[in-house]
Amino acid sequence: MTTANFIHLRVRSAYSLLQGALLIPKLAKLSVANKFPAIALTDQNNLFGALEFSTKLSESGVQPIAGITLSVNFGDARSDPSHTAIFGAKAETTIAGDIALLAMNDAGYANLMKLGSQAFFDPTEIEPPHVSFHRLQEHHEGLIVLTGGHDGPINKALLEDRADVAADRLAKLFDVFGDRLYIELQRHGMPEERDAEPALIKMAHDNSVPLVATNDCHFATPEEYEAHDALMCIAGGNYIIQDDRKRLTPEHGLKSTEEMTALFADLPEAIDNTVEIARRCHMRPLGKAPIL
């Protein structure tokens, strides 16, 4: 990998159905234009775009990092009736939050595929896709884990004033992943992020877990925010004028290296760790010739 100051580790493509708006060919062009030496794809609970991503980015001279954003049930979350199941039905769930997993090697990619499949096979028919923490324990080899942004299990527990639960979840992840665990910080200007960040930094220092800076990219530029907001309304069955609905921000785009280093100028180690993680990931999915 060529010299780099920051690597995007949280990017959702259009394969994050009704969430991401980035087409993979466009992502490849943007990566080249921004001189990104590497980039990770972390679609929501699936690897549908992994092979196309690997092929397009490699052809463009960019290191592809295979990953997934995975919903996890730690078995300790409060029931939340606001979750939407696969076909729009409302279903109570105890999903703690979303983490990101990145494949370091072939074993890690095999485990990504297993976890992505189990996210759809394990839940009941009206539950949204997710895996249990037990599944994560079974299939952790070769994977790096990021604790998630404001939708992550650590952040959500902190925002619920359950610091003990946040600490327990971090301890569980550390017991499984060890030095492959990173506490994730995001700065999209959302109150939830600002409220949780001091506690996250303290947890990282107290437990000797490294910090990593990410931007949860759903689209390319701030100008695409309004179109993406309409997509989110379609996904949730809402109207744009509604106040009580999920929203992102114009900051959820594919920021430049300069923008990210300026955003985290007070925490340069969190930027540096994105490069360290990219260097630890050295595999990419390969296609196979037809056997018939």
UniProtKB/TrEMBL annotation:
Q: Molecular function terms in GO for this entry?
A: 3'-5' exonuclease activity
One of its GO biological process terms is: DNA replication
Matching CDD domains, A to Z? PHP_PolIIIA_DnaE1 (cd07433)
Q: Name one GO cellular component term.
A: cytoplasm
As for subcellular location, the record says: Cytoplasm
Gene3D superfamilies the UniProt entry points to? Metal-dependent hydrolases
Coiled-coil region(s): none
The protein here is known as Polymerase/histidinol phosphatase N-terminal domain-containing protein
